[in-house]
Task: structure prediction
Amino acid sequence: MSVYGKPDYWSLQAKTEGYPARSVYKLQEMDARFGLFSGASKASGGPVKVLDLGAAPGSWSLYARRHGAQGRFILGVDISPLSPHCSGELFAGEGYGFLQGDMTAAETRTAILAHAPFHLVLSDAAPGTSGNPGIDTLRSLVLAEAALEYADLVLHKGGHFVVKVFQGGEAPRLLKAIRERFKTGRSFKPRACRRTSFETYYLGLGKKQALPAALRQAASFTRAPPDTHRGC
Ligand SMILES: C[S@@+](CC[C@H](N)C(=O)[O-])C[C@H]1O[C@@H](n2cnc3c(N)ncnc32)[C@H](O)[C@@H]1O
Result:
């Protein structure tokens, strides 16, 4: 919706295409420009696994489902439930799992690790805004740093990473950390971001480090993902 309460171009487009949120067009633009999903396929050489942090109401997960190669598995994680409007399509077949929980909590981390490794890590997670830019930026940074930790832990070498961050404060420090870990690290503000919003995205393209040893070993076995909450 626009600031005037009327649906804007992107909201109307999302409705037409059956996405629960306009944010899908931010991912679509970044994918078109940086080849996120084709990069994940390259890093995999086979079935692709995607971790979608801050997944609710479900548009990014739905985009990943719709634009995926055969055999893709997507794990969505969010404190909030998915939109019931997308659950039918998301959970059709075997390619989707959803964990409802706080991505910064130890038990959520354990559950995510049980599904690792991944070829693409996305985080559109954002705190509820308080109206105080200092507090909101700090809270956003906590989530973005947690997402980068997941990339360290579960992302394959050569994989890509996308994270939403509110500009300001210590955010540039996060970009520096991304540049140390990926061949390319950059910020990008998609056209679908609201002009008044201080959000932007940081991208890490081509992870330099291999997976931690324990995960490398686990990845060498072909296994079905453990049971995951399937409901919305
Ligand atoms: C902008 S929305 C994501 C939109 C989503 N990418 C889509 O396209 O439908 C931000 C999400 O971050 C989630 N979030 C905020 N803090 C979180 C946390 N600590 N753990 C997990 N999810 C969180 C919120 O519940 C919210 O659903």
About this structure: The two ends are 24 Å apart (CA to CA). Residues 20-21, 23-24, 54-60, 77-80, 102-104, 124-127, 143 surround S-adenosylmethionine (CB under 6 Å). The domain at 24-125+135-219 is CATH 3.40.50.150 (Rossmann fold).
